[in-house]
Hints:
Chain A is an alpha/beta fold. Chain A is built from 2 helices and 3 strands, in the order E-H-E-H-E. The radius of gyration of chain A is 13 Å and the shape is flat.
Amino acid sequence: xxxxxxxxxxxxxxxxxxxxxxxxxxxxxxxxxxxxxxxxxxxxxxxxxxxxxxxxxxxxxxxxxx
Amino acid sequence: xxxxxxxxxxxxxxxxxxxxxxxxxxxxxxxxxxxxxxxxxxxxxxxxxxxxxxxxxxxxxxxxxxxxxxxxxxxxxxxxxxxxxxxxxxxxxxxxxxxxxxxxxxxxxxxxxxxxxxxxxxxxxxxxxxxxxxxxxxxxxxxxxxxxxxxxxxxxxxxxxxxxxxxxxxxxxxxxxxxxxxxxxxxxxxxxxxxxxxxxxxxxxxxxxxxxxxxxxxxxxxxxxxxxxxxxxxxxxxxxxxxxxxxxxxxxxxxxxxxxxxxxxxxxxxxxxxxxxxxxxxxxxxxxxxxxxxxxxxxxxxxxxxxxxxxxxxxxxxxxxxxxxxxxxxxxxxxxxxxxxxxxxxxxxxxxxxxxxxxxxxxxxxxxxxxxxxxxxxxxxxxxxxxxxxxxxxxxxxxxxxxxxxxxxxxxxxxxxxxxxxxxxxxxxxxxxxxxxxxxxxxxxxxxxxxxxxxxxxxxxxxxxxxxxxxxxxxxxxxxxxxxxxxxxxxxxxxxxxxxxxxxxxxxxxxxxxxxxxxxxxxxxxxxxxxxxxxxxxxxxxxxxxxxxxxxxxxxxxxxxxxxxxxxxxxxxxxxxxxxxxxxxxxxxxxxxxxxxxxxxxxxxxxxxxxxxxxxxxxxxxxxxxxxxxxxxxxxxxxxxxxxxxxxxxxxxxxxxxxxxxxxxxxxxxxxxxxxxxxxxxxxxxxxxxxxxxxxxxxxxxxxxxxxxxxxxxxxxxxxxxxxxxxxxxxxxxxxxxxxxxxxxxxxxxxxxxxxxxxxxxxxxxxxxxxxxxxxxxxxxxxxxxxxxxxxxxxxxxxxxxxxxxxxxxxxxxxxxxxxxxxxxxxxxxxxxxxxxxxxxxxxxxxxxxxxxxxxxxxxxxxxxxxxxxxxxxxxxxxxxxxxxxxxxxxxxxxxxxxxxxxxxxxxxxxxxxxxxxxxxxxxxxxxxxxxxxxxxxxxxxxxxxxxxxxxxxxxxxxxxxxxxxxxxxxxxxxxxxxxxxxxxxxxxxxxxxxxxxxxxxxxxxxxxxxxxxxxxxxxxxxxxxxxxxxxxxxxxxxxxxxxxxxxxx
Lengths: 66, 1050
């Protein structure tokens, strides 16, 4: 295993943050591949259990963006 | 056969042409399409979006333009392509977009036009372009990028913006193109054809909407301001790009001379407005300059010095006054009441030197690192030519001429106008106009509505008959995984053979395949074919973003008989291949991980269906003023029944007391006309002396209980059913101020009464002192928008009656926006004196020996004057009608901080409430002029019509569902729902936890599917369909935390 960056689970609102991640793709902006983006219909859907489970299952951090 | 056709009267076209693809045109097209009319939306540039697409943020909420107004129902029309109805693969079936297109000729009359169009070649087939960008990579030509206002460059093969609609590149085959043909070679899909020729189209339409927008004033004309000569003098649109996250500096403003963040910025207002050549006000610049200054403070730090050189603060819409206060007090933005006549540059530092006089007349010299010119709005470039071709009249400034009482009609019947082409205006007014113009078209083409049918039965828009859905609930999951190469856009970075090999090893996967272009018809057929031949019941497509392509693949699987929710799309292109190019091993692992988790998710998926409801084909309009009557007529004229409810005994509202307007028209004529038409209309039932008592139900199926109080005090109650509700309860001049107790201190409305009924008293007046901005004692402070113009209107009358009458107007800001500026100019020419006062030292009304006088400090002379006055007319603030709080509770819609109704979204949905099926019109929203109330009423009517004309609606889908057996009735969901939809219902049959009778219930017809309640429910009793815990958490496969697919070895 090579040195790895932190694994982050990013919960993103479909209409803004997730769309922004798409835009980053369209503009070919580079960011670490350790980030896992999970789409939410709205950040209102964010549930404390989702954050805790991600950490429990080994994520180093959780980000909510919306 | 031919003869028979000839003999039969030709059916008039059930279609409309919308000219201009900015937000106005997009909004109008969408409303018309929803009403079942075919729409040809033409745009002269290669993509939709117009000016708004170049903005980053909207005042006053600083909403990113991107994420607003975009629920599943297709209301949005903001950025190119973000609205579901404009996404290329989910485009509204009734909208045909023609870019690069202009009108050549128009023949015919209202109801039946034939329009010839010329479409310039794009040289790229939008159906084959996958936006891979290879053509731009190889193109050797660099040109200034007009989207970024020349601040960066683009290639001759280019895409206007990353998110343009149509989502495709185009080729600028200008004289600079070397015809090298490299783009043709590079294109992996053979989408480029440099030999493409212009195409001529002829479309038959019943009506035309002109949504041409505006052009920005060319600041180079004012040489003294240095634009074009001094590098650090920018025009406002350049600043907008710099401040936008998608701009050349990703939202951090730098000055062009040295790419450093400026430490001081000055905004110069009224550039190309309110001057000798452009005697109108551009209406939006005060607000956008304030927005730009706040953005500078927020981004570059609070120590940035921001100064705005301004004539009047024109903040005349909802919450705009509060925005100015926030800018001044919280952000410390300086407003200098001065018009700067010249800008000088320090040649060494490239700083800019401004000389200005302060309020007291003292000269100052100040240095700024950047100067932004708040450039005004000009008529669109094509206005003159188009006007002569269409034979419509333009006003003296070159904008489209309209009548005050028919604000959306041009001088040619059947041709309507919306947005800044009729007068300078901002986003919200444009949206109102657009939906209003659509209503005018629906009225004209009333027998054609619902001709072109479509359905929202599925998460995508469709027309075609779909085969019956297969029931796969008893089958074991058998998933097909398709990975798209997207030419080489994905396969160059992701090892697809390895990826599908891995996919094949996952449980529940029955078929894997690499396809070349998942979005092309050939490969879509392949997916459909495999669903049949391989007997697949779940599908995963690893391709582009699900945001843009979900609808396409959902439609495909549905065509093959699968429920569209048994599909998952992996965003392999935008969120993996394109963003991790430097780390192939890690990005391959990410791809595997995405496949692993998505397969798990699709296996947990369940079919979802919407409910079909039949829409009651009538509307309830609350309020019988100009807005209520205009809305009722628009709906009734279009063929739907209207129940018009008025609280007083008489229709007319504020119009009853209006005798003349600044423009010279007669409002009493309008009143008579509206009342006569409403009273005699066979489709309108008027209920006077009637109020709403109860309002239940949901979009398409409301019930209202109404109560009529007869003059003798007896009441009758009755119930109606309706599909849509329009709230048009209006506003009123307030009358609550201690000054009004003094004799001869009156309101402007009382002055107007006197002018009409007692002209002899008016003619005898020698001194009149009008005071503007007198706030009702108990109400919050905001600009009532109409008072300046009304006061000036009355002042002009006083001067015409008696030129020797000394008329003085004491003001804080003169808000005569748009063409109303002319009346301000006229009043000054007639000798009306304007004296500005401030809140620190408001004018005092003094009565000594029976004589009135007003003491006020003239700021320019810094001297207190005592002005004698025969009468002192006050401009009292305008408040919403009484009883608005009760109505807001009955309808369960919110009020704004200023006490008016609060719309769904301030900029993009000004006539909608968040509660669907209820619409807002007129002064119940905010104080308005007559023409603005009419436009707003038409907009609300248009929105209601686009609903009523659909006959059946599909509601529900991705919604929250309560498991009553888990519900403890704690009311958390009722408190957290942003739309106030959950209710705890008492029901003996449903027993919640602990034997509790009843449980929370979420109306599927109203739920917006945000999922907020699901996260908050302490008993975990609510699940959001398609985002259930099973699908989100994937506990069994470890779907969220560290990555489980094979380790990476490098």
